[in-house]
Amino acid sequence: MAEGRKGFFGRLAEGLQKTRENIAAGIDSIFSGFSAIDDDFYEEIEETLIMGDLGITATMKVMDDLRRQVKEQHIKEPSACRELLMESLKRQMDLGENAYDFENRKSVVLVIGVNGVGKTTSIGKLAGQLKEQGRHVVLAAADTFRAAAVEQLTEWAVRAGVEIIAHQEGSDPAAVVYDAVAAAKARGADILICDTAGRLHNKKNLMEELKKINRIITREYPDAYRETLVVLDGTTGQNALAQARQFMEVADVTGIILTKLDGTAKGGIAVAIQAELGIPVKYIGIGEQIDDLQKFDADAFINALFA
C-alpha cells in the first residue's frame, strides 16, 4: 500500500501542475522578488492564494497565521516564509483523529452529490478498498432516478467484489435503503454504503427523500455509526463550495470526497472547503482506477502543490 500511495501522490503532483502554476509559481516569484517583508509582500501572497481558489476565509486564516509566526520568530527574509506558509496550509486541512472511525465500526455511509461529480464511481472505489481491508461491505443502489445509476453501481459492486441491494429504476429510494439495512444486519455486514440521488434543482424533494432515508436508518439500525459524505468535482472550484453548502442544508455532512483533481487549475479548493465549511476533505480522486481514490493526506497534498 505504501508503494501504491507513493504512486498515487506522484500522479497527484502531476495532476496538480495547473494549480501549481496558479499558486506555487506565483508564491515563489513573490518570495524571490521581494527583499523585505512588508504590507505589499503580504498583499501579493494574499491575492495569489485567493486567485488560486483558496477562498477568502482560508486565505485570511493562513495570512493571519503567517503574520503571527513572522512576528514571533523575528523573520526578516521573505524566502524564509515559504515553509511557514506551507505548514500553515497543512494546519488548515487537519482531519482530526476520528476522521475514519466509520471504517472500524458497524456503519452506514450515505454518499450524496449531484450528477456528474463521480459519486457512483467513488462509492465503487471506496467499497473495493474497504473490502481489501477485510471489511464486509454491502451497497444500496438508492439513486433510482438517474438513468443507468443502478446498472453502473452494480458493475462497480462486481468489480469490487461486494454485495449490492438494488430495486428497479424509478423505485422508492427509501425502500431500497430499508431492504439494504435488513440485508446488512442479516448478513453481518460491517459497512453499508448508500448511493443517493442528488437533485439539487429540486431541493425540497431531495430534503424529503433524505429525511425519509435517515428516519429508516435511525429506526431500523439505531446502533450503526453514521457517516455522510458529499462528492464534489474539484474542477468546478468555488461552485463546488456552493454545492456543499446546499447539501449541508439537507444533511448532516461529515466529510467530502473531492474528485477529478488531476489536471485542474482549481485544486486550491481543497484548502477552501475545510476553512469555509468546517468539514474535512476525507478522500481525493484523480482517475478511474479503483486505487485512484485515496484518503486525504494534507502533508502530501501541500507538498505536491508546492513541489
Please tell me what the overall shape is. Answer: elongated
Approximate helicity band = 40-55%
Spatially, the strands of the biggest sheet line up as 3-2-4-1-5-6-7-8
Q: How many H/I helical runs? A: 13
Major sheet description: 8 strands, mixed
- Structural class, by secondary structure, is alpha/beta
Task: Give start-end ranges of low-pLDDT stretches.
Answer: none
Instruction: Report the span from N to C terminus.
Output: 22 Å
Round the Cα radius of gyration to an integer and report it.
21 Å
Order of helices and strands: HHHHHHEHEHEHEHEHEHEEH
> From the structure provided, what is the oligomeric state, counting identical versus distinct chains?
single chain
Number of strands: 8
What is the averaged pLDDT score?
88
Query: How much β-strand is present in the residues?
Result: 5-15%
Task: Describe the structure concisely for a colleague.
The protein contains 13 helices and 8 strands. It is of the alpha/beta class and 307 residues long. A hairpin with a 7-residue loop joins strand 7 and strand 8.
What does this structure look like?
This protein has 307 residues and is α/β, with parallel strands linked by helices. Helix content is 52%, strand content 14%. The chain is built from 13 helices and eight strands. It has helices at residues 2-15, 17-22, 24-33, 39-51, 55-72, 81-92, 119-132, 149-160, 173-186, 203-220, 238-250, 269-277, 298-305; strands at residues 107-112, 137-142, 163-165, 191-196, 225-233, 255-259, 281-285, 293-295. Strands 3-2-4-1-5-6-7-8 form an eight-stranded mixed sheet, with helices on both faces. The radius of gyration is 21 Å and the shape is elongated. The two termini are 22 Å apart. The model has no long low-confidence stretch (mean pLDDT 88).
